[in-house]
Write a structure and sequence with these properties.
single chain, 9 strands, alpha+beta, SH3 type barrels, three-stranded antiparallel β-sheet
Length: 407
C-alpha cells in the first residue's frame, strides 16, 4: 500500500541539532520537528534534501515516534498506514481548514497592477503583471521560493471578493497549490471538497489521489467507480496504485499515444517491463500526422527516452555500481534534464537535478530524487502528478547515470 510521501521525502541529510523521526516503515531519519499537532494528529517537519530545506505536514499514521530534546514520543502504534474512509475524512476535516504553519509569516507579495477581480477571460493579450492566472503561471509556478506567497495571494483574493463564481475558482486553485506544490493532501482534499469537485471536473482525479495518499485506496477506487468516463490522468493514478490491469485496459479504450505512454509507465512501475517496452514501442511507431502531429512527436520523444532507460534498468542496480558521482540527462518538457547521482558503499547517497529548463515542474525536482534515494534505485518510482514529464525524465536520467558506474 502506497501512502503519504513522507515515507519518501525523509531520505534527507541531517540538520544541525536534529530531532529523530522514526517512520512507520521502520527507517529513522533526522530533521526538525516544527509542530506536533495532537488534536489534528499531524506533524510538521523540516529537513534538508539536496541542499534545500523542505517542510511537510503529515499524519501521525506515517510516523511511529519522534525524539525531541532527548524525549521520545510514540505517535502511531499501528503497523499499517491504511486508514478507513471515515478515518481519512476525519483527518481531512481536522487538518483541511487549518492554516499551514508558514502561513502567518508569509508576506502578501504581488504587483499593485494585478487585477484581483481575476476575470475568467482577461483579454488584452498576455500580461503577468495584470492577469492573476498569468501571474501564477509565469511568476509563482516556476519559483519555489514564491509558492507560499501564491497561497497567501489566493486567500487574499478569496477574502476580499464577494463574487461567488470567483470564490469557487479561487477555492479550486488553493487546493491545486496545496496538491502540486506541497503535496499537502489533507488540505488539498478539503479545499476541493469545499468547491464541490467531482470526477466531471479536471481536479477530480487528483482528489481521488488525495484519498489514496492519505491512506485509503478503497476511497479512491470508490470515487473512480462513480463515473463511466474517466480523464486520461486516471491511467496514471491507477498505475501508481498498482491497479495495473485497469490502467492498461483504460489505455486501450483511449487508443492514443498519450494513453499508451501512461500505460507503459504503469507497467514499468509494476515491474512488467516487457509490457512497458511494448507500449513505448507502440507510441514510437505511431505516425505523427494531422493536427496533433506535434503533440504526438513530443510524446514519442518521451517514449524513446523511457525505452532507452528501460534497457538500462538492470544495470542501474546500485549494488552493481562503483563508488562515484555520475551524471546523465533525459528529455523533459522544455528540454534535457541533467541529474547527478552520488553512490558510496553500494548505496545511493544523493540525487540532484543539476540542470533543467522546466517551468511548471511543481515538486517533481525534489519529490522524484527523494523517492529514488528512499527506494535505492529507479524501480518502483512514480512520477509526480501534474509534472509527469519532468518526473519521468529524472527517472530516466538517473537510470542512465547509474548504468555508467555498473561493474
Amino acid at each position: 500500500m502506497k501512502t503519504t510521501r513522507i515515507l519518501i521525502f525523509f531520505a534527507a541529510v541531517a540538520l544541525a541539532h536534529a530531532d529523530t523521526i522514526e517512520l512507520a516503515n521502520g527507517n529513522k531519519v533526522e530533521g526538525k520537528v516544527l509542530e506536533n499537532n495532537a488534536e489534528a494528529k499531524t506533524l510538521t517537519v523540516e529537513f534538508n534534501l539536496g541542499g534545500t530545506l523542505t517542510k511537510r505536514t503529515v499524519p501521525y499514521a506515517s510516523v511511529k515516534a519522534i525524539t525531541v530534546n532527548g524525549a521520545r514520543t510514540v505517535l502511531a502504534e499501528q503497523k499499517s498506514t491504511t486508514l478507513t474512509p471515515a478515518e481519512v475524512q476525519a483527518l481531512i476535516a481536522k487538518v483541511g481548514p487549518t492554516e499551514p504553519d508558514w502561513f502567518k509569516s508569509t508576506r502578501l507579495n504581488y504587483p499593485k497592477t494585478l487585477d484581483l477581480s481575476w476575470p475568467e477571460k482577461p483579454g488584452q493579450g498576455w500580461n503577468n503583471q495584470k492577469n492573476v492566472g498569468q501571474f501564477i503561471w509565469d511568476i509563482i509556478n516556476p519559483n519555489s521560493s514564491r509558492w507560499q506567497e501564491g497561497v497567501k495571494l489566493l486567500h487574499h483574493i478569496l477574502d476580499s471578493n464577494p463574487d461567488a463564481a470567483l470564490k469557487a475558482r479561487v477555492t479550486k486553485e488553493i487546493a491545486n497549490m496545496h496538491f502540486r506544490f506541497f503535496q499537502d493532501y489533507a488540505r488539498a482534499a478539503w479545499w476541493w471538497q469545499q468547491a464541490g469537485v467531482t470526477l466531471d471536473d479536471q481536479p477530480g482525479i487528483h482528489l481521488a489521489e488525495c484519498y489514496w495518499r492519505l491512506g485509503s485506496k478503497q476511497m479512491a477506487l470508490d470515487m473512480l467507480g462513480k463515473s463511466q468516463f474517466l480523464q486520461l490522468d486516471a491511467i496514471k493514478l491507477l498505475g501508481d496504485m498498482l491497479e495495473t490491469d485497469r490502467a492498461v485496459e483504460m489505455s486501450e479504450e483511449y487508443d492514443e499515444p498519450d494513453a499508451w505512454q501512461l500505460a507503459g509507465d504503469a507497467c514499468r512501475l509494476a515491474g512488467r517491463l516487457t509490457e512497458a517496452r511494448a507500449f513505448y514501442e507502440k507510441v514510437i511507431n505511431t505516425p505523427a500526422t494531422g493536427q496533433r502531429a506535434e503533440r504526438v512527436k513530443r510524446t514519442q520523444g518521451r517514449a524513446q527516452a523511457s525505452l532507452d532507460a528501460l534497457k538500462l534498468f538492470d544495470l542501474a542496480d546500485v549494488t552493481k555500481v562503483a563508488d562515484g558521482t555520475y551524471k546523465d540527462s533525459s528529455l523533459g518538457y522544455e528540454g534535457q534534464i541533467e541529474v547527478s547521482v552520488k553512490v558510496r558503499g553500494k548505496k545511493i547517497e544523493d540525487v540532484k537535478v543539476t540542470q533543467h529548463k522546466e517551468k511548471q515542474y511543481y515538486s517533481a525536482l525534489t519529490d522524484v530524487p527523494a523517492q529514488i534515494i528512499a527506494k535505492q534505485g529507479v524501480k518502483g518510482v512514480d512520477a509526480t502528478s501534474r509534472a509527469t514529464i519532468t518526473g519521468d525524465a529524472i527517472i530516466n536520467a538517473t537510470a542512465k547515470a547509474l548504468a555508467q558506474g555498473a561493474k
